[in-house]
């Protein structure tokens, strides 16, 4: 029984280290979202491209941490004889010793707060990008006159004159 307890404490310690990396990753994501919004507003395409490449490489390297977390969850679920899906931090905090319990609660709280903040920042970024897309679409429609089939102008007599073949850009070569 003592061996199983030591093994569980070691697995919990490993999980706590993985959760700390998760928290750091979420904080990095928050920072990246702020930079992304800033660069979109500034229209700094070169720095934006570099940031997107960095985000992609971070995402690829973070996969190892995710796999490690899932592996530890499976091992802990086996140790306490429960289903993998039922192995949560709340369940873990109920069975670990007091010293580890406070660490589990701390990581769980940090994760919850960080993910809530990430959701808000993600929504802000989505709204900004959708607004940029809407504005660009509206601008293109007005430039290329796609929103109207024909244009109505008035001469000096007040008579309406319709132009349906006028274009802002000549597409003929």
Structure description:
This protein is mostly helical. It has a single domain (2-163), classed as Methane Monooxygenase Hydroxylase, Chain G, domain 1 (Up-down Bundle). It is built from four helices and two strands. It has a two-stranded antiparallel sheet. Helix 1 (2-42) runs parallel beside helix 4 and helix 3 (89-95) packs antiparallel against helix 4 (98-143). The radius of gyration is 28 Å and the shape is elongated. The protein starts with a helix and ends in a 10-residue tail after the last strand. The model has no long low-confidence stretch (mean pLDDT 85).
Give a summary of the structure in a few sentences:
The protein has helices spanning 2-42, 45-79, 89-95, 98-143, and strands spanning 151-154, 160-163. With 173 residues, the protein is mainly alpha-helical. The protein is elongated.
Defining key terms:
173 residues; Methane Monooxygenase Hydroxylase, Chain G, domain 1; mainly alpha; 75% helix
């Amino acid at each position: 029984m003592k061996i199983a307890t030591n093994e569980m404490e070691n697995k919990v310690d490993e999980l706590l280290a993985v959760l700390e990396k998760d928290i750091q990753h979420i904080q990095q994501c928050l920072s990246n979202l702020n930079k992304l919004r800033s660069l979109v507003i500034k229209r700094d395409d070169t720095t934006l491209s570099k940031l997107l490449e960095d985000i992609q490489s971070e995402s690829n390297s973070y996969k190892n941490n995710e796999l490690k977390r899932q592996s530890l969850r499976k091992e802990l679920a086996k140790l306490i004889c429960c289903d993998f899906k039922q192995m949560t931090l709340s369940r873990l905090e109920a069975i670990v010793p007091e010293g580890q319990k406070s660490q589990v609660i701390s990581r769980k709280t940090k994760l919850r707060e960080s993910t809530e903040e990430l959701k808000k920042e993600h929504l802000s970024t989505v709204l900004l990008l959708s607004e940029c897309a809407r504005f660009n679409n509206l601008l293109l429609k007005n430039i290329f006159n796609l929103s109207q089939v024909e244009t109505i102008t008035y001469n000096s007599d007040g008579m309406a004159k319709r132009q349906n073949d006028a274009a802002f850009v000549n597409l003929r070569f």
